[in-house]
Amino acid sequence: MAGIVLEHVMKTYGSLYAVNDVSFTVNDGEFVALVGPSGCGKTTTLNLIAGLLPMSGGDISIGDRVVNDLDPKDRDIAMVFQNYALYPQKSVYKNLAFPLQMRKLPKAEIDRKVQDAAKLLDITHLLERKPRELSGGQQQRVALGRALVRDPAVFLMDEPLSNLDAKLRVQMRSEIKRFHHNLNATVVYVTHDQLEAVTMADKMAVMNGGLLQQYDSPANVFAHPVNTFVASFVGSPAMSLIPLEVVSKGTEASLRSPEEGWELPLSAFNARKANASSNGKVVLGARHSTLKLHKAAAPGAVPGKVYTVEPTGDVTFAQVFISGAVVNISLDPSVLIAPDEKVWVEFDQDRMHLFDGASTMALQAA
Ligand SMILES: Nc1ncnc2c1ncn2[C@@H]1O[C@H](COP(=O)(O)OP(=O)(O)O)[C@@H](O)[C@H]1O
Ligand SMILES: [Mg+2]
């Protein structure tokens, strides 16, 4: 296995910056998810690593080799796509064996590699079947197997689960995670689904508009999003974001609703952050699980109006309008509230996020 280094990687199409100055390092054996909304540059980044597209600038290394000018076949990678692209007329065995036959490996070695991969992926009993006789999940496992037999330095996967139904996707998610764990493989995995990234990856590279927004462990990205884009992209339901004004009183500060006039006093630490705002405005961010709903005015709580209530069984999600923003709150199912009800929402000062009103970047305490 090998690590991957991207340095100032660029890909332009005319005036469009599909990948704009992206740098990150995938350590040997790491599972890295490239995640972001459709069109943000994930597939382009993966294809640049694979060598399927020429770069407009920058450097890519795999292992200790700069691969900028190497053909895909010389980069020691294997790709797994959303469309499994299995040979329909060949058996599973022959689908797995074919890339090895092309490389003219001895027959006994091919058989050993195919049997090993089939065992690891639990498809030994399917080896004589044709792809059309397999379920979607089984076909995806064969596609993984075909990458696996080649014993590459790096696995590159582009939305491999997006053709599967929701239940199978969750199942294959843990299978691919197990695959990575068993092999200690270096994997770069593209997905638009933040939950896949959070649940599977050692590190996630969050992209938007061709730019790398944040590169860190899912736990750190979740706990310390660098800007409002990452804050609202990672986590479900999304982090709620409320634009507010800063009212500074010396070292103290509170947040004021421009629409409704109420003020929320801040802790000393949050006041230092709010006072660092570049334009006297902040975006207050809060995750659903950090908010407390009250039926009457309470200290540290601000007024809101219930918009919708969604019971899901274990937990009920409420959407509440606060100062013109929609705020998600999770509630115990025993809490009974109704649309249009007036409520008060209490923020946890230790778990709230403050972003600059102009740059949208997370504020640091001054
Ligand atoms: N061959 C191409 N010619 C022009 N624009 C392209 C081409 N391929 C991709 N793009 C553009 O580059 C951007 C990134 O695309 P892509 O990497 O496929 O996004 P993602 O995989 O994140 O959905 C998009 O705006 C897309 O329209
Ligand atoms: Mg894509």
TrEMBL record:
It comes from the Bacteria. The keyword Membrane does not apply. Residues 4-234 form the ABC transporter domain. SMART domains: AAA. One of its GO terms (molecular function) is ATP binding. It holds the Pfam family TOBE_2. Keywords: ATP-binding, Nucleotide-binding, Transport. The keyword ATP-binding applies. Belongs to the ABC transporter superfamily. This is ABC transporter ATP-binding protein. It comes from Devosia neptuniae.
